[in-house]
Write a structure and sequence with these properties.
Blueprint (H helix, E strand, L loop, with lengths): L2 H10 L14 H23 L2 H23 L8 H39 L16 H32 L7 H23 L1 H5 L19 E2 L3 H7 L3 H16 L7 H16 L5 H8 L5 H8 L8 H14 L1 H16 L2 H4 L3 E7 L2 E3 L2 E10 L5 E8 L3 E2 L2 E8 L19 H11 L1 E9 L5 E11 L4 E12 L3 H15 L12
Parallel strand pairs: 3-10
Antiparallel strand pairs: 1-8, 2-4, 4-8, 5-7, 5-9, 6-8, 9-10
Helix pairs in contact: 2-4, 3-4, 3-5, 3-6, 4-5, 5-6, 10-11, 10-13, 10-16, 13-14, 13-17
Length: about 500
């Protein structure tokens, strides 16, 4: 066949894609569109599902069915006369409090699956193509999302079954075995739904979060020595997907720093200022003035005061509080350092060394976290050794050797913030940067419970003891109240994201 005949034949063939039909062959675009749809659905339905009225209705739904079923068995004349009454009184509440969490959980699962696919095929993403599934901690996140879907499905099954059996009892002959059995099973399922709703309320409250994977993530590993307390704690508690977005934001933050300022120390100072602002130790005006000392005023709005940005003033405060929930001991070190600077304690002003230690007051399932902050307050670099002794624990003894930069203390107590002179906002990041902060895990056998002690010994390079501290903790089994208490604090941390941004007058 000649070339001309081939062209004529192709032109004569029918077009399977007629007018108005457009086929997208771009898998990246399709995945982006799917992720956007699921994210929009997740936020709308999830925000609706976590309303207090609906959470209360969710608790009362099963209880009301159980009470009506019980009363119907005891006093048959009070039983609903027909299924219409059951549909009238329970169909609406059933739809309002059961379907939204179910839809939100499914949308969240579809959204994270689409997000994982995007990271695997998007060449232009930060860090290029990346397999999120293989990142540390991602298996915990996926398991947490699976648990949410499972809880929602069980809750819906219990609710629909209880209401269905209650309605079924209204069409069966009164006082028969099947009649009594229908109401009794409805009562049992109603009480089961109430208890299940109570213990899974935290999972519903997690819906509609702008950082949906954050609450399901916990650091699986961490460095022994931290470069800073606030900056690294935040990063270590970010979920793998959020961490990639944070890298992009951090690049923009570094560009906003005025020339002559250390970028790492500036980042730590920003977090410290936001920490003080969250604790009402700095008002909006003072916090703004401190930030403009090292951040370009024209970039401040884009970096910290953009409501559409995932990382801004309030979301960073949320991340700080989120990290505090997981590692409260680290924040105790920070607050004691601030107190020493403000009070001009003798340990700070006169001692050649400053060592501070903090250990979790309770170690769940035999594991805890020990934080050690050490500063060389002389005028020359010095080698020091830290020995940690954990009787009955693993490991029993650990030794760490460091060469510390000089960090001479202030001559007297300093103010929290003072214009034109060094203040705590200058000294705290300086101490954290020039010193060392150790994050060590301590562990005991699961069979051991009760009071346990850890000793921290500071020695010079020749082995002479400079200082020794003994810390007390309580080893106990993990229980349901521990999880509920932590979830409550995580929910309080999340509330910072919903607060309005400070008003700037720059």
């Amino acid at each position: 066949m000649k070339a001309g005949e081939e062209v004529e034949l192709a032109a004569a063939l029918p077009d399977p894609y007629g007018h108005g039909f457009v086929r997208s062959e771009n898998p990246l675009q399709r995945t982006v569109e799917k992720w956007q749809r699921q994210e929009e659905l997740r936020m709308k339905v999830g925000t609706f599902a976590r309303r207090r009225v609906l959470l209360l209705l969710r608790l009362l739904l099963g209880l009301s069915v159980a009470i009506v079923a019980l009363v119907s068995v005891l006093f048959p004349e009070t039983a609903p006369p027909n299924p219409g009454y059951v549909i009238l009184f329970w169909l609406g509440p059933l739809t309002l409090c059961i379907l939204p969490p179910l839809l939100a959980g499914e949308a969240m699962w579809q959204s994270i699956q689409a997000r994982i696919s995007l990271r695997e095929i998007d060449d232009d993403a930060i860090g290029g193509k990346l397999s999120l599934r293989s990142q540390p901690g991602m298996d915990r996140i996926l398991e947490g999302l699976t648990d949410v879907r499972r809880h929602n499905s069980v809750n819906a099954l219990l609710a629909f079954s209880a209401v269905f059996l209650l309605g079924l009892g209204t069409v069966i002959a009164e006082d028969s075995l099947v009649w009594n059995l229908s109401f009794l099973v409805a009562m049992t399922l109603g009480f089961a739904h109430t208890f299940h709703s109570y213990f899974t309320t935290d999972a519903v409250r997690q819906q509609g979060d702008k950082m949906p994977c954050l609450v399901h993530h916990a650091p699986t590993h961490h460095p022994t020595q931290l470069g800073s307390i606030l900056g690294e704690l935040i990063v270590l508690h970010l979920d793998p997907d959020l961490y990639l977005e944070w890298l992009e934001w951090l690049n923009e933050f570094r560009k906003s720093i005025l020339p002559g300022y250390d970028k790492d120390q500036s980042w730590e100072r920003v977090l410290y200022i936001l920490h003080l602002h969250a604790n009402d130790e700095l008002n909006d005006e003072k916090a703004m003035l401190e930030l403009t000392e090292f951040i370009r005023p024209d970039a401040l709005n884009d970096i910290l005061l953009d409501e559409s940005s995932k990382f801004n003033w309030r979301s960073l405060q949320r991340l700080l509080e989120h990290a505090r929930v997981w590692q409260p001991s680290a924040f105790r070190l920070l607050e004691r350092l601030q107190l020493d600077l403000l009070s001009g304690s003798p340990m700070l002003l006169r001692s050649p060394w400053r060592m501070d230690v903090a250990l979790d007051s309770e170690c769940e399932e035999g594991t805890g976290h020990l934080f050690i902050a050490l500063n060389n307050q002389s005028f020359k670099s010095t080698v020091a050794r830290i020995q940690v002794v954990c009787p009955g624990g693993e490991p029993v003894v650990r030794d760490h050797r460091f060469e510390l930069q000089p960090c001479p203390p202030p001559r007297h107590s300093v103010q929290l913030n003072a214009s034109g002179e060094d203040d705590a906002l200058d000294w705290v990041p300086r101490y954290l940067q020039k010193g060392i902060v150790l994050w060590l895990g301590v562990a005991w056998s699961g069979k051991l419970q009760g009071e346990r002690y850890v000793q921290v010994i500071l020695r010079d390079d020749e082995g002479v003891v400079i200082e020794s501290r003994v810390l007390r903790t309580v080893v106990k089994n993990r229980n349901v109240s521990h999880y509920r208490h932590k979830n409550k604090k995580l929910e309080q941390a999340r509330a910072w994201s919903s607060k309005p941004l400070p008003k700037t007058h720059l």
